[in-house]
Amino acid sequence: MGLTKQYLRYAPSGIFNVVASSDCNISHVTLNGISGRYIAVGACEHVIIWDMRLGEKAQVITGEKAAVSQIACSPTGNHMAVGYVDGNINVYDLHSNEVICVFAGHKSAITCLQYDEQGHRIVSGSKDTEVILWDVVSETGIARFSGHKGIITSVLFINGKNCVVSSSKDTFVKFWDIETKHCFKTLGGHQTEVWSSILLKEERYLVTGSTDQELRVWKLVWTDKIKDEDKITQQLEIVKLEDGDSEESSVLQCHQVGTLVRGGKGRVVGMATDPGQKVLACYGTDSLLELFAFCSDEDAKLRMNKRIKKQRKRLAKLAEESDNANENLDVSEILTLSDEVRRLTSMKLSGKMKSTTLLLGMSGELRVGVSLASNTVEMHSLNISESSEVKCLKQITIPGHQKEPRCVTFSSDNLAILSASVDSIKIWNRNSQSCLRTIPVPCGRPVSACFAPGDRHALVGCVDGQLLLIDVAAGTILESVPAHTTNCAVVGLTPDLRGCYSGGGDKTVKLWQFELIDDPTGESKAKVLSLLHTRTLELEETVTAVKISPNSKFIAVALLDSTVKIFFLDTFKFYLSLYGHKLPVLSLDISYDSNLIATGSADRNVKIWGMDFGDCHKSIFAHNDSVTALQFVPSTHYFFTASKDGKVKQWDGDSYDNIIILNGHAGECYGLSVGAGGLHVASCGSDRALRLYSRTDEPLVLGDQDEEEEGLATGDQHAPVPGLPGLTMPTKKTIGAEKAADSILECLSVGAEYASQVAEAKGAPVQPPVLMAAYNCSTAEDFLLATVRKIRSSDLEESLLLLPFNSACEIVKLLPTLLERGDSTELLCRLAFFLVRVHHAPLVANRHLLKYLIQIQAKANMRLTELRDMVGYNLHAIQWLQRDVEANENEQLFREATNERRANEKRTRRKRALKRPIVTVT
């Protein structure tokens, strides 16, 4: 049976108006070997890399459905990790824009991401209170750290000690050991939430920000490789600083050395540092960005000596004035926080800050990139070695509204799009999605808009009742008409295109006629467009929506009393009243043949009525929140709806079916417009995005649901491994893991059937199954290896967990043969180790499988030894080549001599420091 009705699918064709999402951080990016010029920002589902010299988009990394919540660039500059609000992390190659690997382990939005110094590992924190460590090289999860009770606010690598620091809203800062995968220290010196933390000065200092005006500075002292006399020195320093007992048993001594007082108001929103960990940037809920520089050891000692000289002079002066020559003039020679840190010039920005990123050049120039809540990205420059003023190098604000756009409309030829917000009205090119005109709004917030016939002018209704007449080509406001005393809620064209109508909060609907008048400014002799008020319809309640039927017979008005009144257009005589909605109707539209009227209400329902008798054909529970916009597709009975739940949906007005649900906004959806012919649909929402959808030639069959959406309901959850409560997987079960498990089961069944056919044939040739032939495999072992290679590395372990025990046994039987060949040793060893780890007891207890396990152990050991020998051989060959090149060029690396000299200097300094605290304490 064929399809009775065929629909065409609408697909997203662009997101514009977003310069930088306020919910995502920003980061400096190195492109084509150039740094300090490019800044990566999150823009809804995409990542935009802005060229801050030209003010243009240098590159766009396109996402799919979830919005970007966190980005991090690798130290090498080749890759970028992008965290999404659905908990997934994608690693992209910046040269090809392709996804290298996908990490699925978190249940909710990613809140923080960081690479280690080699770029081989990523640590991520999420709103699900867990920290996960990922291996980028092997594309797998390493460990899941569970212990926090609040949202993770920052995660940091301590590269020198192979551990991770995490801070959370549960007021704690935790130190995790990567090897043991456990927390070995908890910092509990905060009374309220820890909103941010950062490591500075070669990972020796930890700075944490909370809800108060102070930044707490902690000194990290590792005791595992320190000699006894140095331990005595440091413990005496801690006693002097804290007057308390030191933690002798812990491998890490962490004590507070002081606080940095902020000048900004409110809580700490975030902190950032440059890759060299020299400069600290801190910002709060206001527009002030404060900068602190951590001095080098030599500079800190110079500052300490100057401070001690001043203190001794002051004490000597006081002693002379008091005639007490015996007064003690000794000043303790211990480095304080004031010696280590100096305050740089603070930056007062034009709006509230959302994120910042720092990059320090070799000449001392500090490049500061900031994103503001006003949809703006700025680049500032400052020289930290001199007390220079802050320069603004570039400000990107034109490609987007500074506030949320509230209405959107198409021109009659679908070539231009008009959007309006509190700050401005913008005209966009639909094809290139670039901003053509920006018109400042002189009065209240625009709430409705439409193009005038000919597309040379536009009408915009504002919340203060003004009706703006705009010249599109010149980008100016020709006239501001006081149409209503309050809230011009709707404006639209009459079907004859000779005039327009407007409805407002003053309980009136007014009809206007277009006319040409002399230019009132006198600048031009040409006629300009104006509006002439012709008729007024008085009503009992505030008007929320108006529409004139295409046959020019009726005018439908939605009122605040939840009804829709229909009047004859020529006489304004009452015709019908449509009642049934429980809350006010926010949007309505009439079909092209004037037979149907559809209404969308704040009660989340869409009702379809007949225009002949006013009977309700169907009431549809359309959305999970108020229906804010509704519009019919021209020449059809299909219509689109938009809602505060962010969804955009298409419906069939005859069969009442939901045709398609489009990937909508991350917040509320305010406006919707369907272009001529229904070729394009545009929507605007609280995420500041203008989203464009285009009709494709792909047919759409009702009832087909996306498999991924089904998988989100069944999978996407992390559960402990059955029978192994101590094994917590870094990954979670996804639809990809389920598909991989199905493919492995199918591979095993097809391979077993083929092996039995070969055994029965007794040497006669047997045609391999179609699946094996597609993979170009002749044996069951080859088919298994080809199938496992196709599985995404991050889904492999989860797919093996989903297999039944008998299938795991079949894989174990095939592994010795595969290991014998020496192909894909790393993948096969990973398979073997994981299966033995999960099914250790039953595998060892089975006598038939024990011989296979012994073979796996012997062959895996042999293959791994070969790989280790090959790596060692190559390493020593490269070192030999290095020595040969140095000998030919008569050069030597003085690394050993330099290290020895530095060690001797350190020992000398520690001996001197040992004497100072002993004298001070006694």
From TrEMBL:
Superkingdom per UniProt: Eukaryota
Lineage per the UniProt record: Eukaryota, Metazoa, Ecdysozoa, Arthropoda, Hexapoda
WD repeats: 61-102, 103-144, 145-186, 187-220, 481-515, 578-619, 620-652
Organism the protein comes from: Pieris macdunnoughi
Keyword Cell inner membrane: no
GO biological process terms, semicolon-separated: maturation of SSU-rRNA
The protein's name in its UniProt record: Small-subunit processome Utp12 domain-containing protein
GO molecular function per UniProt: snoRNA binding
InterPro entries in the cross-refs: SSU_processome_Utp12, TBC1_cilium_biogenesis, WD40/YVTN_repeat-like_dom_sf, WD40_PAC1, WD40_repeat_CS, WD40_repeat_dom_sf, WD40_rpt
